[in-house]
Write a structure and sequence with these properties.
- Two copies of one chain form a homodimer.
- Among the domains of chain A are: 4-62, Winged helix-like DNA-binding domain superfamily/Winged helix DNA-binding domain (Arc Repressor Mutant, subunit A, Orthogonal Bundle), CATH 1.10.10; 142-215, Ferrous iron transport protein A (FeoA) (SH3 type barrels), CATH 2.30.30.
- Helices cover 42% and strands 17% of the residues of chain A.
- Chain A has helices at 4-17, 25-32, 36-48, 64-86, 96-102, 108-117, 164-172, 206-211, and strands at 52-54, 60-62, 142-144, 153-159, 180-186, 193-197, 200-204, 212-215.
- In chain A, a hairpin with a 5-residue loop joins strand 1 and strand 2 (60-62).
- In chain A, helix 1 (4-17) crosses helix 2, helix 1 (4-17) packs across helix 4 (64-86) and helix 2 (25-32) packs across helix 3.
- The radius of gyration of chain A is 19 Å and the shape is globular.
- The relative contact order of chain A is 0.10.
- The mean pLDDT of chain A is 97.
- Chain A binds chain B through residues 84, 87-90, 97-98, 101-102, 104-107, 110, 113-114, 117, and chain B through 84, 87-90, 97-98, 101-102, 104-107, 110, 113-114, 117.
- Bound molecules: manganese (II) ion (4 copies).
- One manganese (II) ion binds at residues 78, 81, 124, 126, 128 of chain B.
- Chain A binds a DNA duplex through residues 3, 5, 24-26, 34-42, 45, 56-57.
Chain lengths: 216, 216
Amino acid sequence: MNTLAEENYLKAIYHLSLNDTNVSTNQIAAAINTKAASVTDMLKKLADKELINYEKYQGVTLTNAGEKIALHIIRKHRLWEYFLVEKLNFKWDEVHEMAEEMEHISSVELIDRLDKFMDYPKHDPHGDPIPDRDGNFKKHELKPIASLNVNESGVISGVRDHSPTFLQYLEKQQLTIGKKITVTDIIEYDNSMILQVENITTHISREVAKNLLIAI
Amino acid sequence: MNTLAEENYLKAIYHLSLNDTNVSTNQIAAAINTKAASVTDMLKKLADKELINYEKYQGVTLTNAGEKIALHIIRKHRLWEYFLVEKLNFKWDEVHEMAEEMEHISSVELIDRLDKFMDYPKHDPHGDPIPDRDGNFKKHELKPIASLNVNESGVISGVRDHSPTFLQYLEKQQLTIGKKITVTDIIEYDNSMILQVENITTHISREVAKNLLIAI
DNA sequence: TAAAAAATTTAGACTTGTCTAAAAATAAAT
DNA sequence: ATTTATTTTTAGACAAGTCTAAATTTTTTA
Ligand SMILES: [Mn+2]
Ligand SMILES: [Mn+2]
Ligand SMILES: [Mn+2]
Ligand SMILES: [Mn+2]
């Protein structure tokens, strides 16, 4: 099949494609923690395998075959994260690095059985959708809490920043997936927000409000 | 830590050490499906890391550090096999190849939690002992059914051949781990054996009798 | 115990994936 | 529309792991 390195490139390109239609060499290099020259080498290999569309200097897009592989890796990543949290009781800020390794386990039958074992979860611990075995998922439309006005509310459904420190902060503030929040005030001076989270009042910075997402 | 290749070499050396104190280059090459020249290269690297004791032309033994790593990989392999059979309902002949990949997942915390999740199993689906987190396990003494005389009996506790075809054959004959068997007759002509397995009578070849193990 | 056979190691080469430094192309700024 | 800055690609090198073919060592056999 594909090497571990190839899989990581395809996954990175997929994620970057969500923000930009054409993904640049430098973007990939930054995402994957390598140098641009290394990326160029790999892009040639992936293009040879017809997993990406690549024109020199013009950036890349995934072909259907490439996207299918990327989605399968993401499916595995998110199912293993769900397993680690729901079955092995890890916290949501602890599972990403382990899933980075587990997503490369190749057996399709294994991942389908794991999916069934957990009763076909639709979202991972961070609120991200889990593709089914055919790569399909309903992409829920989300928006940042920062876009709300006073007295508007929503249900926390995702995060834009997956770093452990951010996730730990949210956990401490009880700002976790599924919680309903209401904006009770916005401080004009710094655009920070006062939230009502169930029966708790919390004050979050603009920065946090931009990275915490609610269902539309 | 150690690379995937290094881990596979250490594991192979460990398994071969159970039969011979000094493990030869050719034995390793056969076990790992490589050429002797490649093995020699790797032995030098492992010796540099002080994971094996290596003297040119004399074969190798594991150091304590090397054995510890090997046992940890074997622990992971067998725990994942147990998981696949007990939680995901795979058959005992289907899990080895998947475990060959999963045994390289690095997190120690993950494997300890998996161990706890399954309530600290002592043996994998093939009857092999699962080392604890310190590498300790009680090596059960086993002997082949072939060593029994007429009217002697024992409990099936392991296999000497782990190939899917052998395991499938055993499954079909109900000759699975935990079953009590009694030798009711031995055919002198070919040394094949008639077994009573609970309320079923089965006829097995000498070859099979040598590879099916019972607790002493 | 000397010759033959088998096992092991060395030498040199190849692939994958990475890097630095330099060249080329594109984009931005005057 | 040039010049300047940024991005991307090429050139050449390196480490890990493997291979074949040849040399060396050990073991076996006569
Ligand atoms: Mn993740
Ligand atoms: Mn996630
Ligand atoms: Mn196995
Ligand atoms: Mn096993």
